[in-house]
User: Which sequence fits this backbone?
């Protein structure tokens, strides 16, 4: 236990850093794309809606590992050399965007249509309408669910080890291949995930309370 | 379009893997339901020595990636506890069931807590027994909320199940990798696997939505 | 929360594997069954065809199991965890070709070798720049995670750096040899370090794609692996391999699956510091 930490601690910490970078980078990009897709999902134009709806359903109804393997295979077929960390981040971003789109769409739906009209009646332009009227109401709904999604994505990212992305689980496998100490390594890796994910979930809880979002008020 | 023919040719080869995925997830779903009842009771218990371990357990299940849980239970714990050999199949069922139970009990708890607590007292005041209170007053209210979510839970298990391909189980994911190695072409087998997962998960999601619409037709007004 | 973590840590600290002295053979006999682990992604030694594990190793396993007089359960799992799983007691034997190297021999007991392979460096067929290990400076090199070729790749890299080179720009490790070959074919890496037999398979499966650029080091022997305390099981395994070698059947099996004969020395195959007594 101690000797694994002293001899391979740095490799494991690099893995943790990899996970944090992939997950936060991918989540950031995915959130942005997801919000844009949410507006397309509530669009009145069918041609805007259905390609996004198809994409969202495809992602939400296939396992993360399959998505990861497919994206890696696709880059392979196209013969584009990519840094595995970047592809891993892209997998996270794609996954995040689909779930985020649904979260934001749900929040958008909870805002009565009349408010858009009211805001435009007040003479607000579309960006101002969004920033001043819609966004403040969206946030309490979407933020806790969004942070929860961040926790889910952090957990799913462990699957990236199977496609050789240098993240925390992969680092664990590399250390096991050298030390043959299975339980100890998975226990250390497990504790690191636990700390990472539970702090994300705790942040979600705090946000939920801090924003005064009581479930069924 | 060649790739579509390739995929269509591969799909039948993956069916035995699909069957393994279905068997494990089916058994795990049943296990998750069974385990979630005592877990829910412990989680809602006024006694701290029941409640605290339940909270700790649920926290652990929510905080660990399924991949790590699977590695720990297949490689780590048996050696640690001197259990000797364990079957990968049953480890898979157990880990998914344990994970699902934590998920289930939280769904059920959320549903129960939506029911105003005064209702239990009112039922009691009407002279209903504890069992009657549950059966006549509480269950009919929380089932419409909980049932679709629980159907969705089976989907959650299926999405987690590729983790089992990492511990010798030849499920849909692993089977597609085997075909990829045989044909020396990873893309078509993966598309075929994704297609089968999509069919499976899509129909479960559809069922869950139907169930929701059927059980809770006038929820909008609430 | 802290309590959860602490309980977890306690579990960890208490951890130790507890396998007794040749309990393995006793259990195999009493259960009437041996459980073996295979990484069925190493054509032609062990691989999956139409859902079944086949190859040189499968033929050998039939002989080993019939000599033991028991039934067999064969698990297929990724190579990187396969030796650790043996130590953890998940199965009785690793029935997958494992190259003997000094690191592994410190922890695991190896059978009499049933074949040998060379480590080779493979590049894309149209790559004419790499012709020796020294050409690997500054390139992205791939290999299989946890395999003996990973160790060889690291050794090459260290050698390049010791000779004042830059070393690889990156060493990418993949879960299987086919994954490693896919990575080379799709241009994700510039070169891979791989066993000569695997290289032959990939070149046959995907003609005009790959080229062997260089060989590295001496040939390495391939064996099956058991826990060091499973002495009786090891003896039985060795007896089977010796029987096949003496009758010449082993070499016929090599020709059938691998296409060429290779050496199966009866002794002298263990490196210095091996845990098993010969």
Assistant:
């Amino acid at each position: 236990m101690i000797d694994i930490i002293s001899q391979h601690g740095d490799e494991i910490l690099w893995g943790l850093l990899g996970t944090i970078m992939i997950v936060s980078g991918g989540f950031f990009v995915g959130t942005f794309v997801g919000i844009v897709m949410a507006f397309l999902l509530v669009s009145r134009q069918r041609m805007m809606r259905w390609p996004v709806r198809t994409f969202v359903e495809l992602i939400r109804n296939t396992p993360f590992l399959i998505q990861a393997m497919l994206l890696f295979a696709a880059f392979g077929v196209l013969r584009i050399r990519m840094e595995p960390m970047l592809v891993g981040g892209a997998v996270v971003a794609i996954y995040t965007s689909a779930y985020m789109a649904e979260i934001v769409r749900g929040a958008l739906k909870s805002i009565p249509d009349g408010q858009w009209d009211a805001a435009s009646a007040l003479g607000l332009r579309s960006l101002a309408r969004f920033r001043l009227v819609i966004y403040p109401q969206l946030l309490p709904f979407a933020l806790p669910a969004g942070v929860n999604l961040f926790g889910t994505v952090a957990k799913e990212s462990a699957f990236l080890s199977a496609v050789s992305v240098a993240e925390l689980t992969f680092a664990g496998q590399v250390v096991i291949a050298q030390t043959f100490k299975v339980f100890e390594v998975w226990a250390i890796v497990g504790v690191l995930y636990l700390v990472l994910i539970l702090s994300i979930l705790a942040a979600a809880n705090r946000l939920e309370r801090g924003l005064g979002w009581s479930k069924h008020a | 379009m060649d790739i579509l023919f390739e995929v269509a040719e591969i799909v039948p080869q993956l069916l035995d893997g699909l069957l393994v995925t279905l068997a494990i997830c089916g058994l795990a779903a049943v296990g998750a339901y069974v385990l979630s009842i005592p877990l829910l009771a412990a989680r809602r218990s006024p006694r701290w020595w029941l409640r605290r371990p339940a909270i700790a357990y649920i926290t652990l299940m929510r905080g660990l990636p399924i991949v790590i849980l699977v590695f720990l239970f297949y490689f780590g714990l048996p050696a640690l506890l001197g259990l000797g050999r364990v079957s990968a199949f049953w480890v898979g069922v157990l880990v998914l069931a344990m994970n699902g139970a934590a998920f289930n009990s939280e769904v059920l708890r959320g549903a129960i807590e939506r029911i105003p607590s005064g209702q239990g007292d009112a039922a009691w005041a009407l002279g209903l027994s504890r069992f009657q209170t549950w059966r006549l007053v509480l269950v009919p209210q929380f089932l419409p909320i909980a049932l679709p979510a629980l159907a969705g839970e089976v989907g959650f298990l299926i999405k987690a199940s590729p983790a089992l391909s990492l511990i010798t189980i030849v499920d849909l994911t692993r089977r597609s990798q085997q075909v990829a190695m045989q044909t020396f072409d990873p893309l078509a087998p993966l598309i075929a696997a994704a297609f089968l997962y999509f069919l499976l998960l899509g129909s479960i999601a559809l069922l869950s939505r139907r169930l929701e619409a059927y059980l809770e037709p006038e929820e909008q007004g609430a | 929360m802290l309590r959860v973590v602490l309980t977890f840590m306690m579990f960890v600290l208490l951890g130790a594997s507890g396998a007794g002295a040749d309990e393995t053979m006793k259990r195999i006999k009493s259960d009437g069954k041996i459980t073996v682990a295979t990484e069925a992604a190493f054509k032609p030694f062990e691989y999956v065809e139409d859902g079944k594990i086949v190859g040189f190793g499968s033929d050998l396993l039939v002989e080993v199991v019939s000599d033991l007089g028991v039934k067999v359960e064969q698990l297929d799992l990724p190579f990187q965890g396969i030796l650790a799983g043996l130590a953890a007691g998940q199965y009785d034997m690793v029935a997958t070709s494992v190259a003997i190297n000094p690191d592994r021999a410190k922890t695991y007991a190896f059978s009499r070798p049933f074949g040998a392979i060379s480590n080779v460096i493979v590049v894309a067929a149209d790559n004419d720049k790499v012709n020796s290990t020294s050409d690997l400076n500054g390139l992205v090199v791939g290999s299989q995670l946890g395999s003996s070729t990973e160790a060889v790749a690291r050794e090459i890299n260290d050698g390049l750096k010791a000779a004042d080179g830059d070393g690889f720009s990156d060493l990418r490790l993949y879960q299987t040899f086919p994954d490693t070959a896919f990575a080379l074919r799709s241009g994700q890496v510039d070169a891979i370090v791989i066993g000569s037999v695997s290289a032959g398979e990939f070149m046959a499966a995907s003609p005009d794609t790959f080229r062997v650029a260089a060989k590295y080091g001496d040939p390495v022997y391939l064996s099956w692996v058991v826990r060091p305390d499973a002495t009786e099981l090891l003896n039985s395994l060795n007896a089977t391999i010796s029987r096949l070698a003496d009758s010449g059947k082993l070499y016929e099996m090599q020709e059938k699956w691998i296409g060429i004969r290779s050496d199966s020395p009866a002794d002298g195959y263990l490196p210095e510091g091996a845990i098993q007594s010969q």
